[in-house]
Amino acid sequence: MAYELYYWDGLQGRGEFVRLALEEAGADYIDITREPSRGTEAMFGIMKSDSEPHIPFAPPFLKDGALIIPHVANILFYLGPRLGLAPEDEGLRYVANGLQLTITDFVAEVHDTHHPIDTSLYYEDQKPEAKARSAAFIRDRIPKFLGYFERVLRQNPGDPGYMIDNALTYVDLSLFQVIEGLTYAFPNAMAKRKADYPALLALHDRVEKRTNIARYLASSRRLDFNEDGIFRHYPELDSEE
Amino acid sequence: MAYELYYWDGLQGRGEFVRLALEEAGADYIDITREPSRGTEAMFGIMKSDSEPHIPFAPPFLKDGALIIPHVANILFYLGPRLGLAPEDEGLRYVANGLQLTITDFVAEVHDTHHPIDTSLYYEDQKPEAKARSAAFIRDRIPKFLGYFERVLRQNPGDPGYMIDNALTYVDLSLFQVIEGLTYAFPNAMAKRKADYPALLALHDRVEKRTNIARYLASSRRLDFNEDGIFRHYPELDSEE
After folding, report:
1. ipTM score
2. pTM for the complete prediction?
3. Which CATH number fits the domain that encloses residue A196?
4. Chain A environment of B101 (Cβ under 8 Å)
């Protein structure tokens, strides 16, 4: 039975981390809200159910048969071994999950660069605060997080071409997406900084060239980044050139 | 061998979610930074290591033998079955992890009520923005998250006295802590709202009375809430009485 992915239509967003794993593995999946016969109503049907025992708080969530699994890191922890994208060793699976949760935290901070005060308001209603938060994000948080991921690669005793041990995992795919997203949202800041993270950039480039990922990126299933997603390009929030 | 918990000394913070599980289970553990012979230096020794292959991004992390596991939800996913605080059913373990990750997101939003712009600055340097963010948090986010947890309890076909199925899990313990923390940080807002969440408040009260939890709460190991932690009481951020 095909996996069912539930996420907002029209943007990459957090759902993209799951899509990249499903696409790399060539898994059979349905992107429910993009199916004309299902749509966003099918997603709300589960979220608003007053009888379903395992209602998710928010998308994305995955349905595998009757099981409903919410949160990106949780979905990837579940899918990883099934898709051949998790370490064989059980202990290393918790290492992978720890790295993915650090990515989760980073992505939440990316979101807050354009919504620092109130998620129910538009970006335009919190622009000065967004500018202040973005400045701190570019100055402190990008180097802190990317510096950390670079160190993990360098200190990997298995193969420093991967985040964990000596084979591709979903964590590598997610870091590809983080670099893509940051480069879209903050092109000036990233152009100045990229040279500090050679191992991470090399990982990004290798993931981009993988057969199934390259095919996915060239397909209509890969939406462009846009200003409804997590990674948004507002030139006024980026560094000066 | 005792579990080793690594977290900042002097505050409950995110480490407290792990402590509650260890205490409920009566597990053998060492709170490393509070050990005079180890202290915070022992924690930094791991975080700053340039040879350790699985460096954590931030505390808390758990050490079980050679394995280092960072992030609260990840630690609890690992410990849950070992401490008898996870569902027996494998699928339900992902349900538990999904709920714990929703708690993680909520706790991150609690943190941002006093640090909406820049985590490297003091609260005092971002007070107007903290006031705006707290107002939105109290108005929209507390009801959204607590309303969700209340629904999960009500819709639990097993036993609506627990979040999952018909037995205590680490998720129940974490929700006790969330209610404790919110009541400390936002006493006026919570006094007005508590009646909306009867099942959640009943869960809180039951957890508080459990033998091992009651013993822990009365011990010197349970630090008081304070303004170094996640849940901080700044009266100016709370609702009017």
Report:
1. 0.97
2. 0.98
3. 1.20.1050.10
4. 70-71, 73-74, 104
